[in-house]
């Protein structure tokens, strides 16, 4: 291994205050890198391709918590439903329905985050704040017994403008607070604010993140 995974992991963890968890983004990285982080005590990893995740789940320690972090196609949900800990990027009611359906088949409740699009960059995925409000103002999700909405996830624009990044995270935090008060006041599990990646996680933590998704800073450039 030509990358100091353990040292990098310790540095990132040292930056995080109590109450903020690290999702180590291991996509496109070999098992040995994950095993090095695991040896340091890291148990939470993020993947964004169903096939790669399936292979890693089968070959790595079974107490790893796997988060699916990328865009998830509905026809792939059935493959990860038996073991995924959380699906972080639910961007439609259609996907939420499918997760509920597949979770029911395997007798599990799957935790999810709603993906919020607040960045100024164009992107195909993520709910606008109004679309997020519309989804939660509806009643269908309340009848889904096999999914649990635990919070929001977002990505800031990939820019050097720190104020813009901060403003985008702040928008996400304000919507989280609004949705928590309106729909989840009696649901302590609605607490996750997943924002912050390698380039901006210190700002994200200052803006209320409870979960950061860091890959490159720990594992180095991706091995495609």
Gross geometry: globular
Mean residue pLDDT: 95
Question: End-to-end span in angstroms?
Answer: 16 Å
How would you characterize the largest beta sheet? 8 strands, parallel
Secondary structure class reads: alpha/beta
> Which percent range describes the beta-strand content?
15-25%
pLDDT below 50 for ≥5 consecutive residues: which ranges? Answer: none
Number of helices: 9
Strand arrangement, major sheet: 7-6-5-4-3-2-1-8
- Helix content range: 25-40%
Order of helices and strands: HEHEHEHEHEHEHEHEH
User: What Rg do the Cα atoms give?
Assistant: 17 Å
Descriptive account of the structure:
The protein is of the alpha/beta class and 224 residues long. 40% of the residues lie in helices and 18% in strands. It has 9 helices and 8 strands. The protein has an 8-stranded parallel beta sheet with strand order 7-6-5-4-3-2-1-8. Helix 6 (129-137) packs parallel to helix 7 (162-183). The longest helix is centred in the C-terminal third of the chain and has 22 residues, at 162-183. The two termini are 16 Å apart. The model has no long low-confidence stretch (mean pLDDT 95).
Q: Which descriptors apply to this entry?
A:
single chain, 224 residues, 9 helices, 40% helix
Present the secondary structure layout.
Layout: H1 5-15, E1 21-25, H2 31-39, E2 44-47, H3 50-59, E3 65-68, H4 77-80, E4 86-90, H5 93-106, E5 110-116, H6 129-137, E6 147-154, H7 162-183, E7 192-194, H8 201-206, E8 211-214, H9 216-219
Parallel strand pairs: 1-2, 1-8, 2-3, 3-4, 4-5, 5-6, 6-7
Helix pairs in contact: 6-7
């Amino acid at each position: 291994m030509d990358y100091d995974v353990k040292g990098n992991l310790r540095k990132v963890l040292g930056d995080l205050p109590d109450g903020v968890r690290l999702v180590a983004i291991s996509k496109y990285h070999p098992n040995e890198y994950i095993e090095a982080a695991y040896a340091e005590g890291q148990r939470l990893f993020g993947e964004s391709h169903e096939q790669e995740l399936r292979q890693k789940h089968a070959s790595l320690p079974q107490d790893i918590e796997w988060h699916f972090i990328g865009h998830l196609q509905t026809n792939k949900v059935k493959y990860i439903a038996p073991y995924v800990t959380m699906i972080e990027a639910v961007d439609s009611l259609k996907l939420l329905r499918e997760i509920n359906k597949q979770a029911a088949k395997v007798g599990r409740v799957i935790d999810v985050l709603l993906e919020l699009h607040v960045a100024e960059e164009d992107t195909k995925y993520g709910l606008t704040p109004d679309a997020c409000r519309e989804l939660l103002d509806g009643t269908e999700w309340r009848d889904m017994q096999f999914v649990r909405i635990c919070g929001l996830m977002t990505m800031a624009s990939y820019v050097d403008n720190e104020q813009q990044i901060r403003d985008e995270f702040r928008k996400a935090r304000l919507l989280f607070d609004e949705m928590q008060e309106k729909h989840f006041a009696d649901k302590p599990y609605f607490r996750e604010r997943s924002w912050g990646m390698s380039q901006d996680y210190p700002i994200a933590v200052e803006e209320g993140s409870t979960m950061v998704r860091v890959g490159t800073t720990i594992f180095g450039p991706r091995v495609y």
